[in-house]
Write a structure and sequence with these properties.
Elements (H helix, E strand, L loop, with lengths): L9 E6 L3 H16 L3 E4 L8 E6 L4 H19 L5 E6 H13 L5 E2 L5 H6 L21 E5 L1 E2 L10 H5 L3 E2 L2 H13 L4 E5 L16 H9 L6 E4 L10 H8 L3 E6 L7 H6 L6 H14 L4 E8 L6 H14 L3 E6 L17 H24 L5 E10 L2 E5 L10 E5 L10 E9 L3 E6 L1
Parallel strand pairs: 1-2, 1-3, 3-4, 4-5, 6-9, 9-10, 10-11, 11-12, 12-13, 16-18
Antiparallel strand pairs: 7-8, 14-15, 14-17, 15-16, 17-18
Helix pairs in contact: 7-8, 11-12
This protein binds iron/sulfur cluster.
Length: 436
């Protein structure tokens, strides 16, 4: 197929936002190539005739980054570097009507469930036979696996259901087929992602079926690590923890965004839980899966948050001693439930509170990391950087958690391989070690 510039179609896919967008871009890449269309991901070469920008519409900063990227490619089109600019993903899903008027030079806008229509732009068809196949855009030894789309939760601050729609679980058979294909192509680590992974199966199997899914994926030959992200505290399927505890190849790791530590704010956030119930759940998780690393995310500055509420969150973090923690400052998002509330916490106070929590977490993380000195861990080698190999233990997810640094002057390691590493020193966010 030829584009306006009469040059052969070559598509460059640009991904913004979260790992779920990465998977969507990989599915698009696979479908385009499956239709014989030349397509690449995040190419820096100016040789693509068409750019597809997969946007993020989560909170202010992310939205701004998406708009800046669109404008950059619209300028490139003006300069004749590209012939067509298509925009898809969450920002487009959420603001299509306004954006069409504001940035008329974009050739077409697509939603988050619009793959077939996007493919039509290239006279391509959605190939069902490619389900379960996926070209990866990150190092092939690990792969994100989206187990469901959308979310049915009513969290006050969150615009994701507006962009991703209701919760839809993917069938276990389809996920197992995908895992087998990925393992055949060298994937050893599966990172399970969703908006709410603990809701898995409620729609499709009329029960929370995460435990079953974990068993099936853990049985796939070649998969050495299955890692669980985006768990939700309320209605947590405890049987999933039993599977995690009994299966060696399910990482002793749990990413569970908890959002706050004050019961009053958790109620305002419509999280359906309290501080007491959350602490009980954390206790149960740590009892059922000894040595598990828990990652969480919190929000500072939700409407109505008082100094006392913040103190509650601070003491919650102090007491819970999370292994990994991230804090967002509240973003007042249109059409969310919280948008009807008064955004009464000043921006600088939001930031100050977030900084205080991260400062506290830094000291906790340092203490927990120092306890690892002298111990040996199975480490997956992700890359080589300068004179060092960089890897992760089962307690660390790519891009967001700690890394293990091994000097390349002493050791030779292969990227994508596991190695047993004895930790020799530690900082807040990194471990240093040698091959055992
Ligand atoms: S569970 Fe997550 S994605 Fe769903 S509404 Fe709540 S915060 Fe948003």
């Amino acid at each position: 197929m030829k584009t306006k510039g009469n040059r052969k179609t070559k598509v460059n896919i640009v991904t913004l936002g979260c790992s779920k967008n990465v998977v969507d871009s990989e599915v698009l890449l696979t479908q385009l190539r499956g239709n014989g269309i030349d397509a690449v991901h995040e190419s820096k070469a100016d040789d693509a005739s068409v750019v597809v920008i997969n946007t993020c519409g989560f909170i202010d900063n992310a939205k701004q980054e998406s708009i800046d990227t669109i404008l950059r490619y619209v300028d490139a089109k003006e300069e004749g570097i590209v012939d067509k600019v298509y925009v898809t993903g969450c920002l487009s899903e959420r603001y299509k009507t306004d954006l069409e008027k504001e940035i008329p030079d974009v050739d077409a806008w697509f939603g988050t469930r619009d793959l077939s229509r996007l493919l039509k732009q290239f006279r391509a068809d959605y190939k069902q036979e490619l389900v379960g196949e996926r070209i990866l855009t990150n190092p092939s030894h690990y792969a994100y696996m989206k187990i469901s789309e959308g979310c049915d939760r009513p969290c006050s601050f969150c615009a994701i259901p507006l962009m991703r729609g209701n919760h839809i679980s993917r069938p276990i058979e389809e996920l197992v087929l995908e895992a087998k294909n990925l393992a055949k192509n060298g994937t050893k680590e599966l990172l399970l992602i969703a908006q709410d992974s603990t809701y898995y199966g409620l729609d499709l199997y009329k029960k929370r079926n995460l435990a079953d899914l974990l068993k099936h994926l853990s049985d796939v030959d070649g998969i050495e690590w299955v890692r669980l992200h985006y768990a939700f505290p309320t209605g947590f399927p405890l049987d999933a923890l039993d599977v995690m505890a009994e299966r060696d190849n399910i990482c002793k790791y749990l990413d569970i965004p908890l959002q706050h530590g004050s019961s009053r704010i958790l109620q305002l956030m419509r999280r359906g839980t309290t501080r007491e119930k959350t602490e009980e759940l954390l206790q149960t998780i740590r009892t059922k899966v000894p040595g598990i690393a828990i990652r969480t995310t919190l929000i500072a500055g939700h409407p109505g948050e008082t100094e006392a509420d913040f103190e509650e969150m601070h003491s919650f973090v102090e007491k819970s001693r999370f292994d990994r923690l991230g804090v967002f400052t509240y973003s007042h998002e249109e059409n969310t439930h919280a948008y009807s509330m008064n955004d009464d916490v000043p921006a600088e106070v939001k930031q100050q509170r977030a900084d205080e929590i991260m400062e506290l977490q830094q000291s906790i993380s340092l203490e927990l990391n120092q306890e690892k000195v002298g111990k040996t861990f199975k480490v997956l080698i992700d890359r080589k950087e300068g004179g060092e190999f960089i890897g992760r233990t089962e307690h660390d997810s790519p891009e967001v958690d700690n890394e293990v640094v091994i000097s390349a002057s002493k050791e030779y390691l292969r990227i994508g391989d596991f190695a047993n590493i004895t930790i020799t020193s530690a900082t807040e966010f990194d471990l240093y070690g040698e091959v055992q």
